Amino acid sequence: MTAAIPTLARTRHSARTREALAFYLLITPWLLGLLVLSLGPILASVGISLTDWSLLESPRWIGFANYERMWADPVMWLSLRNTIVFSLGSVGFGLATNFLIALLLNQRVRGLGVFRTIFYLPSVVSGVSTAILWITILDPNYGLVNYLLGLIGIQGPGWLTSETWVIPGLVLMSVWGSGNTLVIFLAGLQGIPGSLVDAARIDGAGALRRLWHVTIPMVSPIVFFTMVTGFIGSLQAYTLVLLMTKGGPANASMMIGLYVYQNAFQYFDLGYASALSWVVFLLIMAVTAIQFLVARRWVHYEGA
């Protein structure tokens, strides 16, 4: 038995080495794309952020003036606040909604494939089509949402025209097209060993206790992954906001990503836009780092 211990250790080390080699082999195409196509523009944006460049004339070196300008820019601070509020709402609401739908789609019922297809289909609709659809759905006069609210005696707000309701309206829209997240949740739920659920059921645990003590801990890595990627995506949101509200009314839906776009391609202030883009990058890094620190307390990895 003593002689078998070094052999077992070598086997585990060999398996980890093969796993590491497979990992680096699989990410090689992405790394090559990053180095060849993205690294140059990323480094160039650092230099551009230190200049005053309108594309109509040669860039003029101004040092850190663009970064100092941000501190006195109320629109930047407003867009930053709107972005954080939108991200918290869309990621939180989206995670809860997709997890509950995944639980329903994980049941054994007739026509399950049809239901899964229906919930996944919105994720393949283009952004422009989604924006046009939701402008109609959220219309205060004849939109579907306000019509349904009217059936229960509630006067619906002007979702995209009210400074108070425009962010909730965008959060509601953000859940649409999250079929990819739904598929990931379904894969995580189907990967839970049936023996754990059966053991909890034999011990007398009801459906809610099995959900809280078995299902959620087992899919917590999936929840963590979708949370990280969800925040990364929502902190860069600007396409649908540009199409649906253009940052209005009165900049109530102005996002930091949209503000970068406006400065770059509407005001042609490339230097300031590049500086703002680095603020977006630092915000994403800070939020991701916080999530990794907090994840140690609630994310459960099987066998860890």
How does this structure look, described?
The protein has two domains: 1-48; 64-295, MetI-like fold (Orthogonal Bundle), CATH 1.10.3720. It is mainly α. It has 13 helices and two strands. The radius of gyration is 24 Å and the shape is globular. The longest helix is centred in the N-terminal third of the chain and has 45 residues, at 4-48.
Secondary structure elements and their pairing?
Layout: H1 4-48, E1 51-52, E2 60-61, H2 65-71, H3 74-105, H4 112-120, H5 127-137, H6 144-151, H7 166-174, H8 179-190, H9 194-202, H10 207-234, H11 239-244, H12 256-265, H13 270-295
Antiparallel strand pairs: 1-2
Helix pairs in contact: 3-7, 3-8, 3-10, 3-12, 8-10, 9-10, 10-13, 12-13
What order do the SSEs take from the amino end to the carboxyl end, as H and E? HEEHHHHHHHHHHHH
Mean pLDDT rating: 87
Summing up helix and strand content along with how strands pair, one would put the structural category as: mainly alpha
The CATH architecture assignment of the largest domain turns out to be Orthogonal Bundle
Q: In DSSP terms, counting alpha (H) and pi (I) runs of 4 or more, how many helices? A: 13
User: What kind of assembly state do the chains in view correspond to?
Assistant: single chain
Task: Classify the fold: give the CATH topology of the largest domain.
Answer: MetI-like fold
Compute the number of strand runs.
2
Strand portion, in percent? Answer: under 5%
Question: Cα-atom Rg, whole angstroms?
Answer: 24 Å
Give the biggest sheet: 2 strands, antiparallel
What strand line-up does the widest sheet have? 1-2
